[in-house]
Amino acid sequence: MFKERLLETELWVPRTPAQVFPFFADAANLNVLTPAWLDFRILTPLPIEMKQGALIDYRIGLKGVPMRWRTLISRWEPPHAFVDEQIKGPYLLWHHTHEFREQSQGGVAGTLCVDRVRYKHTGGPIAEALLVRRDLERIFAHRREKMMELFGKPG
């Protein structure tokens, strides 16, 4: 009934997976990658031991409406990949795969950071086009900008 959708982004940075992954292994850094307009707060006490099976509770403000979100780290393979899945939150399905692929460009060692989000929501095509997809693209544009600030110069 509700259509599964896919959002994929890629960003190459001139750092190795071993240099990039530790940033993602610290859940507190989600605050850096999340735009302020989402009013994002981690509710689980920090530090959080990131591993397969870890549960993380957040609060977000979506269009001014506060919502709780719980994710499960269902895959944890440092420094190459991890998956977070929504257990509770605004989506019917949220399955976010993060991959860190070693890749050189122009003779410079680096990492291709790949985000693949499979998601479903209760809205139809109009909600998808005007609200959901637009917001997700804004979130991932912010994430890309922050990652370039952090990792865009050779380390």
Head-to-tail CA distance between termini: 47 Å
The helicity comes to 25-40%
Number of helix segments? 3
Overall pLDDT metric: 96
| Number of distinct beta strands | 7
What is the fold named in CATH at topology level? Alpha-D-Glucose-1,6-Bisphosphate, Chain A, domain 4
Structural class per helix/strand content?
alpha+beta
**Biggest beta-sheet profile:** 7 strands, antiparallel
The structural domain count equals: 1
The top-level CATH class is: Alpha Beta
Structural shape: globular
Task: List its salient traits.
Alpha-D-Glucose-1,6-Bisphosphate, Chain A, domain 4; alpha+beta; 155 residues; 7-stranded antiparallel β-sheet; single chain; 39% strand; globular
Q: How would you summarize the topology of this molecule?
A:
Elements: E1 5-13, H1 17-24, H2 30-33, E2 41-42, E3 55-62, E4 65-77, E5 81-88, E6 93-102, E7 111-120, H3 125-151
Antiparallel strand pairs: 1-7, 2-3, 3-4, 4-5, 5-6, 6-7
Describe the structure.
The protein is α+β, with helices and mostly antiparallel strands and 155 residues long. Helices cover 25% and strands 39% of the residues. The chain has helices at residues 17-24, 30-33, 125-151; strands at 5-13, 41-42, 55-62, 65-77, 81-88, 93-102, 111-120. The protein has a seven-stranded antiparallel β-sheet. It is globular.
Q: Brief description of this entry?
A:
By secondary structure, the chain is of the alpha+beta class. The protein has three helices and seven strands; from the N terminus they run βααββββββα.
